Structures are given as C-alpha cells and as structure tokens.
Amino acid sequence: MFLNFIQQVTSVLNDAVRSAGFEVNDLELGPSQHADLSSRVAFRLASVAKQSPKDVADRIASEVVIPEGSYIGKVEALGPYLNISASRSFIDAIVSGIREKKESFGGNFCEGRILLEHTSANPNGPLHVGHIRNSIIGDTLGRILKRAGYNVELHYYVNDMGRQIAIVSWALEHFEFDESSKPDHAIADVYIKANAELETHPEKVAEIDRLMQLVESGDEETIERFDKAVGLAVAGIKETLGKMNVSHDEFPKESSFIRSGDVSRIVDEIKATGRTEIDNGALVVDLLDYGFEKTLVIQRSDGTSLYTTRDLAYHEWKGERADRIIDIFGADHKLISGQLKATLNAIGKKEPEFVIFEFVSLPEGSMSTRRGKFISADELFDQVKVRALEEVDKRRPEMPDDFKKQVADMVGIGAVRYDIVKVSPEKSTVFDWKEALDFEKQGGPFVQYSHARACSILRKAKDEGLWDSEAIIAPSLLVEDTEIALIKKMGMFDNVLDQCAKELKPHMLAIYGRELADAFNQFYRFVSVLNAEEEDVRASRLALVDCARIVLANTLDTLGMGAPESM
C-alpha cells in the first residue's frame, strides 16, 4: 500500500514542481520524523532558483493540488523540507486491503526472471555454522523476491570435480565409510583422514592430481567415483537445509559445463579478447584495466580447468536464462567475484549481482572442515531445539509433549534464522543461542509470540461469540494513536519488500518484523479490544488484530520462519 502512496506523492509533487517553474528528475523522497514522507527536492533546486531551500519549498507547496480521494492528506513546507502526511483514505484502504488480500497482501508488484545461487558449499562434509549465513541470507532473499512478484529459481551449484572432491573420492577407496552415520558427516570423517594422510605422505598428492585429470578427460570410472562421493554428501546437506526450512530448485553440477563443451568455448571467447597470456605454463586473464593487479587463472599448466573457469561457463548459461543473476558469496570470495564479473563484462555477457557477506561464528571460534575443527549445523540445530524445548516447557508446563516439541522446533529454527538474517550482510556476527532464544528480547521468538498473541485474542473472541471474520467493519472507527501507528506500519510491508529486493538486503525485513510486532503489542497494551464498550468499535479493533495476524504471518513466512498460533 505504501508504494501506491509513494506513486501518488510523486505524481502530485512533480506537478507542483512544474507549476512552480522547475524541472527535476529526483524528488529525494524519504522517511521523516514529522510526517509519513518527506522530500528534499528544495535543496536540489535552490541553486537553480537562486533562492534559499526554504523559499523554494514554500513555492512548491503553494502549487500542490491534492485530488479528491487521494492517499495524500496534506503537503506542507517545514523549513527546506516538503512534508507529506497520509489521508484517512489511506488508513482505511490499508485495513480493507489486508482483509481482502490476506496472504497475498503486500506483494506482486514486480516481474521478471531471477536465478539466485546460494550456499553451494563444497560437498566434502556437513554444513557447519560458517555456511548457514549464506543459506539463510540466500533463502530469505529468494522468498522476498518471490513475494515481490519475481519468478525466482534457486540454485545450489555443486562442486563435483575439484581437488576437494578428488580427495573425498580417493578417501572412499582408502578409509572405511561409516554407513551408520549421516552421510555428509561420514564423508567429513574420511576427508579429514585423507588430508592427514596426504600431509604425512605428500608423494600421494600425485594420485589426487591424476584423478582430477581423469575426470576432466571424461573417464567414466572416475566420474562414477566422484558422483558417488558427491551424492552421499549432497544427500546429507539437503537434509540439513530442510531443517533450516531452506530448499533449492536446481542443483547444477560443475562437470555438466565441461561435458557440454561450454568451458572450452568460453575459454576460446576469452582468448579472442586478447587478454590472455601464459604465466608459468598456466593460462591467465589480464584484468588490469578493470582495477585488478592480480591475473585470473582459467587453465592450469596440465590443461585442466579451474572452479573459476567452470563458474564463468555457468554464469554465461544463467545469463541466457534470466533477467537478473544474483550470487550470495562469503567475504573470502570478494576478489574472485570481482574478477568473475569483469571477465564476463569483457566478453559481453550478463554480469551477476553479488551479496558479499561477512562470516558468522560461535563464541568457540572459527571452523575448518579440512582439519576437522567445525561445529556442524546439525549439532547447532539440535542444541537450539533442546534449549527452545526447555523454554517452552517452562512457560507452558500444562501443554502436551507434542505441542511443546512442535513449538520448540518452530521457535528454535526461527530463532537461528532471525538472529542470522537480522544483521546486515557486510557486518560480521557471532551467533549466541542464549541471546537468540531470549523471549524477553525483540528477536525471532518475540515476533512469533506476537503472532501467537493475535491468534489467541481472536480465538477467545470467537469462543465468546464476539468475532466474525466475515463481518463488515468500519475502519474509520480506528482513531487511537497506537491504532494508526500499527496500521501505517502494516501498510509499509510492500515498501520494505521493495527496498530489500532493490538493495539485496534481507536484514531490513527482519528489522521491519520486529517493529511490526512492537507496534502490535503497543496497540494491545494501550487500547481495550475484547472489553471495548461499543460493539462496532470492538469489531473494528478485532479486525485490526486480525490484520496484524495476517501481516505478521506474511512477514514470518517471508523470513522463512513458522507462525505459531500458540506459544
């Protein structure tokens, strides 16, 4: 709804600017403490008008004409700013819109096809805590883009032929595989043993090199060995992703771009630019004019390709199938992602958009799969669920065990997802389950509890014969400050989605969810709902509770979190 408000403001202000004798491309609209929206356009026009920004703002405000029934209540100059306040029509339209659109409220204002890649961890062991920020950022961003209206396809790009996979394949031939363990954990066990063996006996590294050459040349037996190793690890990884409420549409493999000939073809395309040279036997790309002093290696001296080479072919393939390509990469990929983008630009291919995130860690420290120093995501989720169950049991001891477990699972995973995604990607973060599961703080459980509270209010009202969800209500009766604040906050949902989609920053939705929950709780704290004396006022306030339930549920769903009806 707020996007419609912005459209109307833009139209009215542009007309007023022209009537005042100016032309401008950007009204510089933004939030304000004094109104629902504010424009800084007077600053931009002051030098042209040879007047102070305040005089320009007054001049534009005097030309404003607000159409009848507009979402705009008034436009007034306050010093150099143009402050825009919403009308009663806008307030009423938000309530009516939520009640009409329900689960679809706030979305479907964009179009286009997007291929979004996230997680893509090497299949040499289970996902650990260091991986899950990629998964949660990527999945949440995918959900945001889908709700905004985009046709989104989510990819997990599988490294099925690199050195690490060669080591895993070799390890399966030399060490016992624990069939009783989750397969990705069993893969990590033999991978760790293999690395220790290779460090002790470096002459055996030649066997790994040979495997890599064989798989790239198309040797069927070696390919089958690699596929077996990768399949075991990916099966376990998919199970872990499912625990996080994360799913992918496709799992394209690196090797497919070798077998299709796409890698050879893109190497030839890069050569044709005149940017390549031989450096110590390897084929490298000169990207100095793009600001990269370090060359990009695209072919080893033995003629085999690298992950980067295959990634270039994969991105070329993606670019032919989507309007936008988005990759979620860790900060350790910052250089290579820039080189990847520059190389694609040099051969005239569609360039990806990147979300580069800093890493998440535990108080215990950093992690390495190769050396066996990691805390798996499975261990983290099991621990969080146990802690969440203790919290639910403490709060609802009278409830049956199946209820407690269901809520604990929902709250536990929700707490992890919220705590990870609430921090802007470019900032590092430490995950502390005690903080994440604190019901008293404004984290994931707080947002979920607000939804459960709304459900509880409506359930009680229905039991007492006070609530009919189909009854016609009068939004105009909702006039209290906390009622208006809650309605406006709900109306912001589409605008927040739009900002997240444009800036690729899902943490803004987490912040919005917390603010929405807070606005709902403030409303319920200061306004009588079930005990309202006038029947029509009570009905309107119950409808407002239902609207809050809907928008909270939509927000939680977009964050990949469950929306419990009772906690």
In one word, what is the shape?
Answer: flat
Oligomerization state: single chain
CATH topology of the domain at 379-559, by name, is Isoleucyl-tRNA Synthetase, Domain 1
Please estimate the helix content. 40-55%
Distance between the termini: 30 Å
Fourth-level CATH superfamily of the domain at 379-559: Isoleucyl-tRNA Synthetase, Domain 1
- Count every beta strand, where a strand is a DSSP E run of 2 or more residues: 13
Into which percentage range does the β-strand content fall?
Answer: 5-15%
**What's the pLDDT, averaged over the residues?**
94
CATH architecture of the domain at 379-559: Orthogonal Bundle
Helix/strand/pairing category: alpha/beta
| Number of H- or I-type helical stretches | 21
Radius of gyration: 28 Å
Q: In CATH, what is the class of the domain at 379-559?
A: Mainly Alpha
Q: Main beta sheet: strand number and arrangement?
A: 4 strands, antiparallel
Strand order of the largest sheet: 1-2-4-3
Low-pLDDT stretches are 366-372
GO biological process, one term: arginyl-tRNA aminoacylation
Subcellular location: Cytoplasm
Family: Belongs to the class-I aminoacyl-tRNA synthetase family.
Domain Arginyl tRNA synthetase N-terminal: 7-86
